[in-house]
UniProtKB/TrEMBL annotation, chain A:
Residues 2-233 form the ABC transporter domain. Keywords: ATP-binding, Nucleotide-binding, Transport. Pfam families: ABC_tran (PF00005). SMART domains: AAA (SM00382). It comes from Ructibacterium gallinarum. The lineage of its organism: Bacteria, Bacillati, Bacillota, Clostridia, Eubacteriales. SUPFAM superfamilies: P-loop containing nucleoside triphosphate hydrolases. It comes from the Bacteria. PROSITE patterns: ABC_TRANSPORTER_1, ABC_TRANSPORTER_2. This is ATP-binding cassette domain-containing protein. One of its GO terms (cellular component) is plasma membrane. GO terms for molecular function: ATP binding; ATP hydrolysis activity.
Length: 254, 307
């Protein structure tokens, strides 16, 4: 359903943030993109959502070339994006955001169901403003709920685990599993978390702006966690980054 | 009730008029009385001197609403009115004011409402007012409300004031004195566009221990409009005061915020905040990821901000 062809994305003072990235995402799959910090994961997600425009290359979504489409057009086509750093609004409530996401008015029980999926005690939150009165973790979970409410064909989550507590994280993993089992759209999740990697259908490893490995979990997982990782990252410095990533994963898990 | 159509439309916008008011009301139209009704607990009578009304709310009155909207439906009228509200001990009521001015010619339509509130011990009032200017004329639509508040011990006033748009010039002055344990909350939302100008001026004196005030102003200045926010909270006792002015600038709008605090008691806790800026790009972007265009996102953010 999604194909990236030779995607390049450069900064004015730094080339190769994404460097000739080819990637195919199959419909209905849970695809987890992982890799060391600064490797290009978030940029990749933003390029797919239309938040960033590639320097070159093509993006095909459900057979349609969307490379030149802006973020609004892509959203209308069915691409949803959960920000790594949620945005606060004075005057907009949680209910407002979820209804804007769904594109319609929502019954209270429906609003609550989305909030429960991210571990929030729903009734307490519906009428709260998305302002400084909510903690970072609460905002993060509401951001994820806003993407769930979209019921999009392709939902992109940029480090959904960042800033939320362990209990809510467990609930979030369950939600991703439910979505995958129910085949409710395709999920593209940027994550370092071993538990999220463990429920993936496919894993993509990106480092230094290049896809280092992509394939079924069963194929990529052993490469990520094997003691010998030469096949995944032939360069020594890449091995060091993967090691650091593994340590980060395990630290967060603990 | 037979009513001028423009007046009726203005009443709908500023006081939720739906063909009639239930309970006590006084409708003012072009400087005259277009309808009045008292109830068992709320008596409305004309002032003995000068234009305006006196509203007496009996002690212990609860759950009733008083409507006192005023409209100017043509140019060339400057309506000046003095309304006094005496709210008895322990009463808890809603007062819906609201003012609409309309002109279809080059002459000014203007309303100046001077409202004085005297709340007895432990009385509570929710005071709602909306202001609106309409009409195709070049004549200025002007509203200058003055609100004077005296809160006795334990009394509370919540004031919810909204300028809906179309008002070329407004100057709101609010003065309040708070006795012990009294509480004042003011929520103000103002939208200006074109070359409109809106001035807000609060002066609150907390004289009694454990009194408190919260002034919350949210405004949007679009086009080439200008807004001025002035507030001064005086803490003369052990009290708490907070004022916040949040403003969004769109196009070439200008906002001048001047919050001030004055404390003469070591236990007075006073805070002010003022923030002026454009709509954050990330807010627009978030709503665009939900399928809104940039323009739709901006309007939704403004609507929410002023809600």
């Amino acid at each position: 359903m999604l194909t990236l062809e030779h995607i390049v994305w450069n900064l004015p003072d730094r080339e190769g943030i994404l460097n000739d990235v080819d990637l195919t995402v199959t419909s209905g799959k849970l695809v987890v993109v992982t890799g060391p910090n600064g490797g290009g994961k978030t940029t990749l997600a933003k390029v797919v959502a239309g938040i960033e425009k590639p320097s070159s290359g093509r993006i095909i979504f459900e057979g349609q070339d969307i490379t030149d489409m802006d973020v609004t057009q892509r959203a209308k086509l069915g691409i949803a994006y959960a920000f790594q750093q949620p945005v606060r609004f004075k005057g907009l409530t949680v209910k407002d955001l979820l209804e804007l996401s769904a594109g319609r008015a929502l019954e209270e029980n429906v609003l609550c169901s989305y909030l429960r999926k991210v571990g929030l005690c729903a009734n307490e939150y519906i009428d709260r403003e998305l302002n400084a009165g909510l903690s970072g973790g609460e905002m993060k979970r509401i951001e994820i709920a806003s993407v769930l409410a979209r019921n999009a064909k392709l939902s992109i989550f940029d480090e959904p685990e960042a800033g939320i507590d362990l209990w809510s994280f467990s609930r979030l993993v369950e939600t991703f599993e439910e979505l995958r089992q129910q085949k409710r759209g395709t999920l593209l999740v940027i994550s370092h978390q071993e538990r999220i990697l463990s429920i993936a259908d496919e894993i993509v490893v990106i480092a230094d702006g290049k896809i280092r490995e992509a394939g079924p979990k069963e194929q990529v997982w052993p490469l990520l966690f094997a003691s010998e990782r030469a096949s995944l990252c032939p360069l020594g410095r890449e091995n060091a980054k993967i090691d650091a990533m593994r340590r980060e994963c395990h630290d967060q898990e603990r | 009730m037979k009513m001028n159509q423009i007046t009726e439309e203005l009443l709908k916008a500023v006081s939720d008029f739906k063909g009639e008011f239930k309970g006590a009301f006084n409708i003012r139209e072009n400087g005259g009385c277009a309808g009045r009704q008292s109830t068992e607990h709320i008596r409305i009578e004309s002032r003995k001197e000068g234009p305006g009304i006196v509203v007496h709310i009996m002690p212990g009155t609860k759950g009733e609403t008083v409507y006192i909207p005023a409209c100017v439906n043509q140019g060339g009228i400057h309506d000046l009115v003095y309304n006094d509200f005496y709210v008895g001990e322990g009463a808890d009521v809603i007062i819906v004011a609201g003012c609409g001015v309309h002109t279809d010619d080059e002459e000014e339509a203007r309303h100046d409402g001077i409202h004085r509130f005297f709340l007895e011990k432990n009385a509570h009032v929710l005071y709602q007012e909306k202001h609106l200017g309409t009409g195709k004329g070049d004549g200025r639509k002007r509203i200058d409300p003055v609100t004077d508040v005296a809160l006795a011990e334990g009394a509370g006033l919540e004031m919810d004031t909204v300028q809906l748009g179309g008002v070329d010039y407004s100057c709101r002055k609010t003065r309040a004195k708070l006795a012990a344990n009294a509480r004042l909350i003011v929520r103000e939302r103002i939208m200006t566009d074109g070359i409109e100008k809106a001035v807000t001026d609060f002066d609150v004196v907390m004289e009694g221990d454990n009194s408190g005030v919260e002034l919350i102003s949210r405004s949007v200045a679009r086009g080439n409009s200008y807004q001025e926010f002035k507030s001064c909270i005086h803490g003369l006792a052990r009290c708490t005061g907070h004022s916040s002015c949040d403003a969004i600038l769109v196009d070439n709008g200008t906002v001048n915020a001047m919050p001030a605090l004055e404390a003469s008691n070591v236990d007075a806790e006073l805070i002010h905040e003022a923030a002026i800026g454009k709509i954050a790009g990330e807010q627009i972007l978030k709503l665009r990821t939900l399928g809104l265009t940039e323009e739709e996102a901006q309007e939704r953010i403004i609507a929410g901000f002023l809600k």
